[in-house]
TrEMBL record:
Cofactor annotation: pyridoxal 5'-phosphate
InterPro entries in the record: ACCD_DCysDesulf (IPR027278), TrpB-like_PALP (IPR001926), TrpB-like_PALP_sf (IPR036052)
Keyword Cell membrane: no
Transmembrane segments: none
Pfam families per the UniProt record, alphabetical: PALP
Residues forming the catalytic site: 71
Residue numbers bearing the N6-(pyridoxal phosphate)lysine modification: 44
Record-annotated Tryptophan synthase beta chain-like PALP domain positions: 22-288
Gene Ontology MF annotations: D-cysteine desulfhydrase activity
UniProt keyword list: Pyridoxal phosphate
Protein name (record): 1-aminocyclopropane-1-carboxylate deaminase
Family of the protein in this entry: Belongs to the ACC deaminase/D-cysteine desulfhydrase family.
Tagged with keyword DNA-binding: no
Length: 304
């Protein structure tokens, strides 16, 4: 694996024009990281990049990671196996594996090894004793946390931050906190980084993000908004899905309603409520995950 494989041209920035934005005197743009890599989309590429580089530099010949059966991280990790000819092992929150699930089918096609565990075992995914047992079960395997979020991930997301034009606000969807932490690490101190939590009762993420950044953090100030989950993780309202479809039709901007669609809908509501001062420039981050639409269709949560 050559490190040059990890050097990609930057994804484009798309500006959004709308009468609401003109009325509120707000500049809104979206960083199209869904277009960053042909197979490993958005923040999952950013997070995996330095994990894979570390894996290679430390002499590991495979990796072990964790995810739900429909997770974007599972999809991205499987694609990394296929793209870079790696051996990957995924611990799946089970207790069973549905072989007809489109994410599972794709992971199998990429040659990833899948192991279903019950939810009690899956909850041990951060436990040092459990991780040590996995290291024994999968010798010479590099362990990548659920969602890819760790210190190495921050370096990849910080590269994203440094690629952005100067903005007053940089906003992303937040599941595990790694993208917020990486943006805060890489953005200028004059920028306010905001995370829109996509799960219920997400206040604990404030501590997780702070731990990732450590006390030496000298980058951008950050905050987490926790009242825009629209039902919780993996859930969404009809309003969110209608908004996603409208953005696709009007701006050729594909969205899914679990992460980026939910985030951008929340930003739209905040703009309409005058949350941001007039004259503000807002950069939102498209973190990819569009393959999740196949999973939503499979589960009958959307029909188009």
């Amino acid at each position: 694996m050559d490190n040059n494989q990890f050097v990609l041209p930057e994804s484009p920035v798309q500006e959004i024009q709308h009468p609401l934005l003109e009325q509120k005197k707000i500049k809104l743009a979206i960083k199209r990281d869904d277009l960053l890599h042909p197979a490993i989309s958005g923040n999952k590429w950013r997070k995996l990049k330095y994990n894979l580089i570390n894996m290679k530099s430390k002499g590991y010949d495979s990796f072990v990671t964790f995810g739900g059966a429909f997770s974007n991280h599972l999809y991205a990790s499987a694609m990394a196996c296929k793209t870079f000819n790696l051996t990957g092992h995924a611990i799946i929150r089970g207790p069973d594996i549905d072989e007809n699930n489109p994410t599972i089918k794709m992971a199998r096609a990429c040659g990833m090894n899948l192991y279903a565990v019950n939810r009690k075992t899956y909850r041990l995914r951060h436990d040092p004793a459990y991780l040590k047992s996995l290291q024994t079960e999968f010798p010479n395997s590099f362990i990548i946390p659920e969602g890819g979020t760790n210190k190495a991930a921050l370096s990849g997301v910080a590269e994203l931050a440094k690629s952005l034009p100067q903005s007053d606000y940089v906003i992303c969807a937040t599941g595990s906190g790694g993208t917020v932490a990486g943006l805060a690490k890489g953005c200028a101190h004059s920028t306010q980084v905001m995370g829109i939590a996509v799960l219920k009762q997400a206040d604990y993420l404030n501590q997780e993000i702070a731990q990732l950044l450590t006390d030496k953090h000298s980058g951008a100030p950050w905050q987490l908004l926790t009242d825009h989950h629209y039902g919780g993780y993996g859930k969404f309202t009809e309003d969110v899905w209608t908004f996603c479809q409208l953005m696709r039709q009007t701006y050729q901007l594909p969205l899914e309603p679990i992460y980026t669609g939910k985030m951008l809908f929340a930003v739209w509501q905040l703009i309409s409520q005058d949350y941001f001062p007039q004259g503000s420039s807002i950069m939102t981050i498209h973190t990819g995950g569009l393959q999740g639409l196949d999973g939503l269709r499979y589960r009958g949560l959307i029909t188009r």
